[in-house]
Specification:
By secondary structure, the chain is mostly helical. 77% of the residues lie in helices and 2% in strands. The chain starts with a helix and ends with a helix.
Length: 425
């Protein structure tokens, strides 16, 4: 009987503890639910501020360009012409998070593009083998930079400054004179659209509509799934009203972009440009790598506190090497798209590409001191740079003023980041 009573008492305590935990979870949930939308918006001002800034920039240039900025074909051109910023910003994000910098992006794009054009024009390589060659060269350059930074200890600033001079010089040797690219398949990468397998639905592209609907469903599912998991694990959650507000804004934005893409193109093709597919795949892969893999956790750990990362057993040298290896790969993809768009290689290609990538990361909230930054933030920053480029180009603003405006935007973004940190501190 004593043993039975002991078991009963143990079971009673277990049930009481379970009930107490459930009550605590519910209490925490109720507490979050009572927070006002104003409190949540103010508490996440830094996170949502970058998206608000993008909307403001778009509205301003839509007005200044007389409504031409959001013309469907201009929206497609924005992605096609600024793909290099979006792609290079992914790699630059990882470099900055790990407290490094890469100043060689533009020079490497010029050199790789020159070799690719030469391979197709003089060596008889088809477009596919030329792309493989360009990617291999990009990986080799990334490994070169990574070796000096990770295993020799040369600072990334010095290493890539040297790389900037080396590869700009090699680009001049390879493409001192313009090398044209005439392969129609290669040129289609930057200017053509994905085929509409189901044809056009009236005046609208079927693939754009299908992808838009799938994107809306995924966004809704991900938000609700994330909230339900938080509730199950007893974590703080946002009130349902706030989640609904975010979903309404996100769905409206996706639906509008879908409409613009579905209307784009010409009588034979339209919808989703090939470049957008490439960018989307890279964003998805690297978002997963940074947020769901050991490599991503190591990147943030190294950037947050390198000494602590070493003490915890992280191979910081291998992490640094992989970061620059990935930077080389992404730079080679940017080179492929740039060469495809320009249809020729010159030694001057890629001027200030690294500055645009750096600006995109800083505008997107990446910390100058490292350890902080996100793929979505960097992409929004890249879109802001793209809208600036596109809007000022449509307005016919002189290139000198374009650089001046972009420089002021970068300073303002970094200053805002530093001031907000001081206030929190």
């Amino acid at each position: 009987m004593t043993g039975l009573n002991r078991d009963l008492n143990r079971e009673r305590k277990r049930i009481q503890m379970s009930a107490a935990n459930s009550a605590a979870v519910k209490k925490g949930d109720d507490k979050v639910e009572t927070q006002s939308l104003k409190e949540l918006l103010l508490g996440n001002a830094r996170s949502y501020g970058i998206f608000f800034a993008l909307v403001v920039v778009i509205i301003v240039f839509q007005i200044l360009t007389g409504g031409r900025l959001l013309n469907p074909n201009n929206v497609v051109a924005l992605f096609q012409q600024n793909a290099y910023v979006l792609i290079a910003a992914i790699g630059m994000l990882m470099v900055i998070i790990a407290t490094h910098i890469d100043l060689s992006v533009g020079s490497v794009v010029a050199f790789i593009g020159g070799v690719g054009a030469l391979a197709m024009k003089n060596w008889g390589l088809n477009w596919f083998l030329a792309i493989v060659l360009m990617i291999v060269i990009g990986l080799a350059i990334g490994a070169w930079h990574g070796f000096w930074v990770a295993y020799v200890g040369v600072p990334g600033f010095v290493t890539t400054l040297g790389g900037m001079l080396i590869f700009r010089g090699l680009a001049t040797v390879v493409a001192g004179e313009s090398i044209p690219v005439s392969d129609p398949t290669f040129r289609a990468i930057s200017k053509d659209y994905l085929p509409n397998v189901l044809g056009f639905w009236g005046d609208f592209s079927s693939n754009a509509i299908i992808v838009g609907v799938v994107a809306i469903v995924l966004v809704i599912w991900m938000q609700l799934h994330k909230r339900n998991n938080a509730i199950k694990n007893g974590l703080p959650v946002q009130p349902m009203s706030f989640v609904v507000l975010k979903l309404v804004i996100a769905v409206a934005a996706i639906a509008y972009v879908t409409y613009l893409l579905a209307c784009s193109g010409n009588a034979t093709q339209g919808g989703i440009p090939i470049v957008m597919l490439i960018i989307g795949v890279l964003i998805g892969v690297y978002w997963f790598a940074l947020n769901r893999t050991v490599y991503g956790r190591n990147v943030y750990a190294v950037g947050g506190n390198r000494k602590a990362a070493i003490l915890s057993g992280i191979d910081t040298k291998a992490t640094d090497f992989k970061i620059f290896l990935n930077m080389g790969f992404l730079t080679s993809i940017a080179a492929v798209i740039t060469l495809s768009r320009l249809a020729s290689a010159t030694a001057q290609t890629g001027m200030e590409f690294e500055m645009d990538a750096l600006a995109a990361c800083f505008i997107g909230g990446t910390a100058v001191t490292g350890g902080i930054g996100t793929i979505p933030g960097a992409m929004v920053g890249a879109l802001i740079m793209g809208v600036l480029n596109q809007g000022l180009s449509i307005m016919g603003v002189d290139a000198a003023w374009v650089k001046t405006i972009k420089g002021l935007v970068v300073i303002a973004a970094v200053a805002y980041d530093l001031v907000s940190k001081r206030k929190k501190g």
